[in-house]
Amino acid sequence: MKKYNLVSRLELTNITKQYPGCLANDNVSLTLMPGEIHALLGENGAGKSTLVKTIYGVVAPDKGDIIWNGKEVSIKSPSVARDLGIGMVFQHFSLFETLTVSQNIELCLSKAQLNEIGDLGERITKLSEEYGLNVKPSRYVHSLSIGERQRVEIMRCLVQSVKLLILDEPTSVLTPQEVSGLFDVLRTLSNEGCSILFISHKLHEVTEICHKATILRGGKVVDTCIPQDETPASIAKMMVGDLAEQDAGYAKKEGTVSIFNIEDLSLPAKQPFGTALKNLSFELKSGEILGIAGVAGNGQDELMAIISGEDERTVNNSISLDGADISHLHAGERRKLGMAYVPEERLGRGAVPDMSLTENTLLTHSEGFIKNGLVDWPSIKDYTSKLIAKYKVKCHGEFSEAKSLSGGNLQKFIMGREIGQNPKVLICAHPTWGVDVGAALAIHQALLELRDKGAAILLISEDIDELFLLADRMAAVCDGYLSPVVKTENTNIDQIGQWMAGTFIGNASVSNKQETTA
Amino acid sequence: MDSDLIVQILFAAVKTGTPLLFIALGEVICEKSGILNLGQEGMMLMGAVVGFLAAYGTGSAGLGVLAAMIMGCIMSLIFAVLVLHLGANQVATGLALTIFGTGLSAFIGSGVVGQTIQGFQPIAIPLLSDIPFIGRILFSHDILVYTSFAMTFILMFVVYKTRIGLTLTAVGENPHAANAIGIKVLRVRYLAVMFGGVMAGISGAYMSLVYTPMWVENMTAGRGWIALALVVFASWRIGRIMLGAYLFGVASIMHLVLQGLGWSISPNLLAMLPYVATVIVMVIISADKFKEKLLAPRSLGKTFDPRQMA
Question: How many angstroms separate the CA atoms of A31 and A36, rounded?
Answer without folding.
Answer: 10
